Amino acid sequence: MNNVTGKNQRSRAFLTVFLKEVKENLRDRRTLISAFLTGPLLGPLLFVMLINFTLNRELDKAEKPLPVPVIGAEYAPNLLDALRAGGVVPGAAVADPERAVRKQDADVVLRIASDYGKAWRKGEPVQVELFYDSSQRDANTSVERVSTLVENYARQQGAMRLVARGMSPSTAWPLQVARRDQATPQSRAVLMFAMLPYFFVITVFMGGMYLAIDLTAGERERQSLEPLFANPVARWKILCGKLAAICAFSTASLLMTLLAFAVVGQFIPAEKIGMELDLGVHFAAYVLLLMLPLVLLLAALQSMVAAFAKSYREAQTYISLLMLVPLIPSALLSFMPIKAQAWMYAVPLLGQNLGIMQLLRGDGVSVEQLGLCLAGSFAAALLALLATVQLYRSERLAISA
């Protein structure tokens, strides 16, 4: 009878540890802020505010009158009229156009040579100069706008010269390129929301980070690990209870983030720039499924890294460095665009990144890709879990505790 009672007590150890850790950390303000505020809510709000600010600023610059200093405006009155028709307001000339654009006194400066009129009347090619600084991203819209107007004016005048000589304007363009852009409004959204997968990974990371630190290095500082390990319950059951608590907080954090993006995504004016963004239930369900193995993997890695630390502050340092790892796939795909291969979906973090990008494009994730992603990530999570269990069983942890 005593043996049966002991077995029942040990079988309930997992649930007891899980409920204990969840209850204790629900009273911890730092854990709650990290799990349910900083990542899940603040991230989506800042993301949407930044996107809205950028889009509205660029749209305003594309529509509002654009002041442009013009040097030698008196030499090309017809060109100036064409620029005014396009919304450009010619301004006073500046003495040093190079300095003006470097100091951001002007986004772009137009300079017309003094022999412009003479060359034009002779039918000779003429040249105007655009001064700008390509490193100033804020000026790109203005530069593109002025450049397009000048080029359109040049093409129009060239066609009129051909007509005046009794020739067809098409003579100057014997070859024409017909562009067939296959991008859909939804697939173009990837260009702007390429960092979205990183938000989800960081949300999972932040959701369980402080809990993972507290359940290892934190308890070591409070010297509460030794009583836990002294009881007859197997250490791996204690660890599983702690990991389950970390996973619960991380999953709740991810769900809140998905809900937040579904709500705030309605306020992104993507349609104004020819894009379509769908962050609704279908998107959220697939993201949740793709991210589930990462929840366990990151929980195990955080617990393992924090277990090597001798203090809470030291554990924070180690885990903060670990937080840089999820940035690698997003950075690689942003700076080194690659064609996705089947095996890539089996790589943890990279597979999730590729899958979420396909969802954003509206292409969906195939059964094979989903299976590879889940299998590869769950395999990595299992290895991390076994390594963490082995660490908890080691004498080193008991001595450190």
Report on this structure.
The chain has helices at residues 2-11, 13-26, 29-63, 77-85, 97-102, 116-121, 140-164, 196-222, 225-230, 235-264, 281-307, 312-322, 327-335, 350-361, 367-393, 395-400; strands at 66-71, 88-91, 108-112, 128-132. Strands 2-1-3-4 form a 4-stranded mixed beta sheet. It is 65% helix and 5% strand. The longest helix has 35 residues, at 29-63. The relative contact order is 0.11. It has 2 domains: 2-55 and 187-400, no CATH class; 65-167, D-Maltodextrin-Binding Protein, domain 2 (3-Layer(aba) Sandwich), CATH 3.40.190. It is mostly helical and 401 residues long.
Unreliable sequence segments: 226-230, 395-401
Radius of gyration: 31 Å
* Biggest sheet record: 4 strands, mixed
Average of pLDDT = 79
Choose one word for the global shape. Answer: elongated
Given helix and strand content, the structural type is mainly alpha
User: How many discrete structural domains?
Assistant: 2
Helicity range: 55-70%
Strand content: under 5%
Number of strands: 4
In short:
This protein is mainly alpha-helical. It has two domains: 2-55 and 187-400, no CATH class; 65-167, D-Maltodextrin-Binding Protein, domain 2 (3-Layer(aba) Sandwich). The protein is built from 16 helices and four strands.
